[in-house]
Design brief:
Blueprint (H helix, E strand, L loop, with lengths): L4 H13 L19 H6 L7 E3 L5 E3 L1 H11 L1 H4 L7 H18 L19 H23 L17 H21 L11 H12 L1 H19 L2 H4 L2 H7 L7
Helix pairs in contact: 1-3, 1-7, 1-9, 5-6, 5-7, 7-9
Length: 247
């Protein structure tokens, strides 16, 4: 499912490390869908992505899958493991901030990211989008400290790391949806967030990141063509109070 930001995180590592030939990528539909009995036997949470190894081990959760691939293919993935303990810690922190504060949710609740594309009330959407904006400011502040060697990547200056793989697909969501449907200024404008702007430009100049951008953004265009933001009530909410959701 190209629209999945979590699946895209794993694909980015596969593309960058030249491991496409080692993994057969299938849609959950091949097993009857995320809620099918066959899929739930492998991953009771009914979510994606999911990796099944050659030994039959079911490995769910994108961060765990990435960790498995780093261990399984150390030579191929070595360039994308930050080279110092400080840089690896920085990559882990940025990944954690993304996974917990942007993409994590209480049971039955919505993630902060969900404010961009899921049905919810006006107050909840306003709060989610405000939190999203604050998380971007926090990431910008982390990049401003120069601990990544001047960038442009999140943890190092030399090469992308697991942090870049984690954040980039979600930032495709933000860049696509926030200005288009909620009236935001460009979240990565250089005058607004210069360090994230530089990082975004570096990602888009990389062929593999650009490939994932095309996959995810293309799927999001399909959502737009299908009227998703009408169906979830977002367009009506914004029309009634356009300034409420802007950042």
């Amino acid at each position: 499912i190209p629209v999945s930001n979590n699946g895209a995180r794993v694909r980015l590592l596969l593309y960058k490390a030249g491991l496409e030939g080692e993994v057969e990528i299938q849609s959950p539909a091949a097993l009857g869908g995320l809620k099918s009995e066959e899929y739930l036997q492998l991953h009771p949470q009914g979510k994606m992505p999911l990796l099944v190894t050659e030994t039959g081990l079911a490995v769910p959760e994108s961060e765990v899958i990435v960790s498995y691939l780093l261990d399984k293919y150390p030579e191929e993935t070595a360039p994308f493991v930050a080279p110092t303990v400080d840089a690896r810690t920085r990559a882990a922190l940025l990944t954690r901030l993304h996974d917990v504060y942007m993409c994590g949710a209480p049971p039955g609740g919505n993630t902060v990211m969900g404010g961009l594309y899921k049905p919810m009330g006006e107050d909840e959407r306003e709060a989610k989008l405000a939190s999203m904006n604050a998380q971007l400011d926090d990431i910008e502040a982390l990049l401003a400290d120069g601990a990544n060697g001047g960038g442009p990547w999140l943890a190092t200056s030399a090469a992308p790391s697991t942090a870049d793989f984690a954040l980039f697909p979600s930032m495709v969501f933000v860049r696509f949806m926030a200005p288009r449907f909620f009236g935001w200024e460009d979240p990565f404008a250089v005058e607004r967030r210069p360090y994230l702007a530089r990082w975004w430009d570096a990602c888009m100049a990389d062929a593999d990141f650009a490939r994932v951008h095309g996959e995810v953004a293309g799927a999001l265009e399909g959502w737009a063509d299908g009227g998703r933001w009408d169906k979830i009530g977002a367009n009506e909410q914004v029309a009634a109070a356009p300034d409420r959701y802007k950042h």
